[in-house]
């Protein structure tokens, strides 16, 4: 057999190329390398004793291989037994459900141990808030970070905490407070029957109102239209008082466990008609109309919260800004003036 020896120039060029290639590979590997001893060659995974329903094992191993690529570790082999014994020159990763063989397997304990009786790092993670499709990658990220922490411990004994898996909330409220704000954007309609009394004119008006409410976060706005009617009997006949109005209210909204509470400053603008009627031939009657306005404070209750249809109650009190009155023989017998009190009951429809 004849072996051809390369020329001296070719040997020098080959040696230089090999040195440059090794240098580039070392520079690229340093950022991702794990400071284990060089004898650590492979990663052995010990799966749960029971089949984990929370993530596919094969998909987890594929994701873990991607996360450990370029770190000087061969990934991944499955342990032949679950007694914690693993071959030499290997790093053992153990995965077990916190509640063994539980349905779902959302709570998982992971552990990593280096060769020759190295210390064991353990973490407990929850996959309950992670979508099933991304659970294998979330678990692989947690295991890869645990292996990096174990490598740092082997180097300088300064472990770093492992971050929670992706999409896991840091704070989970355990109880619902009695009083909290409503955070949904929605609209509702209230159909109400109302009674309004004017104590200074000894007048009571009966009517109805339709109110539209839009609320966002802790704020709400109302727009309503309505009409009312009153009939006062006097010596010479009857005095009829009719009114139609539109109102606007603005204020805060609160949601409790039993009711939705709306507070509002409300302004109202309308028109009033007053007419006298009589059955006596020698009595002369008259009629008139004019604009009216008022402003007041309104509180509305709607129960129960979250229902599409539910009962509602509204209370309001305020003052008349522009009045209207009806006189008989120079004396006022009815009218809208002074202050007023209002109560209404009805049904609320969520839109």
Describe the protein.
The protein has 2 domains: 38-156, Alpha-Beta Complex (Maf protein); 181-278 and 286-350, Porin. The protein has 351 residues and is of the alpha+beta class. It has 3 helices and 16 strands. 30% of the residues are buried. The strands form 3 sheets. An 8-stranded antiparallel β-barrel has the order 7-8-9-10-11-12-13-16. Strands 2-1-3-4-5 form a 5-stranded mixed sheet, covered by helices on one side. Strand 7 (186-198) and strand 8 form a beta hairpin. It is rod-shaped. The chain has helices spanning 8-29, 57-67, 135-156; strands at residues 42-46, 74-78, 90-97, 107-113, 120-126, 179-180, 186-198, 203-216, 219-234, 237-256, 260-277, 287-302, 309-322, 324-328, 331-336, 339-350.
Can you count the beta strands?
A: 16
The helix count comes to: 3
Structural class, please?
alpha+beta
Largest sheet: 8 strands, antiparallel, barrel
Distance between the termini: 94 Å
Summarize the structure.
This protein is 16% helix and 48% strand. It is an alpha+beta fold. Residues 1-34 and 174-185 have low confidence and may be disordered.
Features:
Porin, Maf protein, 8-stranded antiparallel β-barrel, 351 residues, 16% helix, 5-stranded mixed beta sheet, 2 domains, disordered N terminus, alpha+beta
């Amino acid at each position: 057999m004849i072996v051809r020896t390369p020329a001296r120039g070719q040997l020098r060029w080959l040696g230089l190329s090999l040195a440059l290639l090794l240098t580039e590979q070392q520079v690229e590997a340093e950022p991702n390398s794990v400071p284990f001893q060089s004898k650590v060659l492979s990663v052995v995974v010990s799966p749960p004793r029971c089949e984990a329903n929370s993530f596919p094992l094969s998909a987890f191993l594929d994701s873990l291989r991607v996360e450990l690529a370029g770190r000087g570790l061969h990934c991944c082999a499955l342990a032949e037994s679950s007694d914690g014994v693993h071959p030499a020159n290997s790093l053992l990763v153990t995965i077990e459900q916190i509640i063994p063989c539980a349905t779902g397997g959302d709570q998982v304990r992971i552990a990593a141990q280096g060769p020759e009786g190295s210390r064991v790092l353990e973490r407990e993670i929850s996959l309950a808030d992670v979508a099933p499709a991304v659970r294998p990658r979330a678990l692989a990220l947690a295991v890869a970070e645990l292996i990096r922490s174990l490598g740092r411990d082997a180097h300088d004994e300064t472990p770093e905490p492992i971050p929670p898996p992706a999409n896991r909330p840091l704070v989970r409220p355990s109880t619902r407070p009695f009083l909290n704000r409503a955070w949904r954007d929605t609209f509702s309609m209230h159909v109400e029957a109302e009674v309004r009394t004017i104590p200074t004119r000894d007048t009571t008006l009966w009517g109805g109102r339709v109110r539209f409410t839009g609320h966002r976060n802790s704020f709400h706005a109302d727009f309503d239209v309505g009409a009312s009617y009153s009939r006062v009997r006097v010596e010479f006949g009857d005095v009829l008082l009719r009114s139609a109005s539109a109102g606007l209210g603005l204020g805060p909204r609160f949601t409790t466990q039993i009711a939705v509470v709306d507070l509002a400053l409300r302004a109202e603008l309308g028109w009033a008609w007053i007419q006298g009627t009589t059955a006596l031939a020698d009595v002369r009657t008259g009629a008139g109309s004019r604009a009216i306005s008022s402003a007041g404070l309104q509180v509305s209750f709607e129960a129960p919260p979250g229902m599409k249809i539910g009962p509602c109650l509204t209370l309001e009190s305020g003052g008349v800004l522009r009045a209207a009155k009806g006189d008989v023989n120079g004396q006022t017998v009815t009218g809208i003036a002074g202050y007023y009190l209002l109560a209404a009951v009805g049904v609320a429809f969520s839109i």
